[in-house]
Predict the 3D structure of the following.
Amino acid sequence: MVPILEVQDLHVSYRSSGEASYAALAGVNFHLMPNEILGVLGESGSGKSTLATSLLKLLPSNGNISRGSILFEGKDLLCAPAGELEQIRGKRISLVYQEPSVALHPALRASEQVFQVLAAHESAGKSALRQKTRQVLASLFPKEADRISNSYPHQLSGGQRQRVLIAQAIACGPSLLIADEPTASLDSTTQKEILGVMRTLRDELGLAMIFITHNPALLAGFADRVLVLYGGRVAELGLARTVLSSPKHPYTRALFQSMPQILENTRDTRKTKLPVIAGDSSAAQLPLEGCVFEPRCPDRMEDCREREPAVVNLGESHTVSCFKYGG
Ligand SMILES: Nc1ncnc2c1ncn2[C@@H]1O[C@H](COP(=O)(O)OP(=O)(O)OP(=O)(O)O)[C@@H](O)[C@H]1O
Ligand SMILES: [Mg+2]
């Protein structure tokens, strides 16, 4: 099988006035197979949203992709003309954001919100688009499609709004869905419900997904593989069951050790605070040379300060960037 997405050596930086540009992503490599769910895990500032917006070339004006390639369905998005990108966004690749109350138009009924997405990308007549709108909403709200369709966002619960956003995202039949912390504002029962909806969509529509979160507990039983980002670098990448049960990178280990409930799916994950790992990962604190995790690493060695570790293959597509394992 051929990957649907291949990201190679991706470097993204931000310019701020009067300051040197900041490398938010450096040398990011990964691929995604059709029908696969990749969980992207990392604490605040690790580059998760930068990755999502880079994949759609929707970076803010001070952001710049300085190196690398993003092959989507065999085409390099970084070289694609603007018109082609417009067609790919929303139609072949769609994005679900964190905050449903901001992402939805407050003055439009749910059906209108989905209809407008379809109308922007498809040339069919109005009545065909209305019918498709009904079908998509019925797939997300099998029991109450009519009521939801006629509701305004403020008449819906957080979970229902999130489902409307998902309806918009799948309306045009994309092959890749990127979800950036889509459940962060929901309670744990609704979070699980939304994860269930996303998995069903993956199974029924054959979608591939990139699911971004700072919460490892959400990935157990949901993601197929997990990519751990730290300071804009891929610290570890592997099958979810391997990474979650037997993490190798000192950062992943520290993250999980301070969260013993990761593999128990029973707690209120919304209230799970980021684990406390001694030290600071804010941009200003990252070292300019060596391994970015070195200042906080319990296992640091001499080499770690001097150069960046290479990617070490541990087998079964499990890779880690750490001198402990070679590198
Ligand atoms: N528009 C911008 N201008 C300058 N720096 C930015 C900009 N957007 C993000 N950054 C910086 O890039 C780094 C990565 O940010 P990003 O938003 O991708 O992180 P994140 O992992 O999504 O964090 P969070 O979990 O808080 O959403 C951070 O250090 C952030 O301060
Ligand atoms: Mg983010």
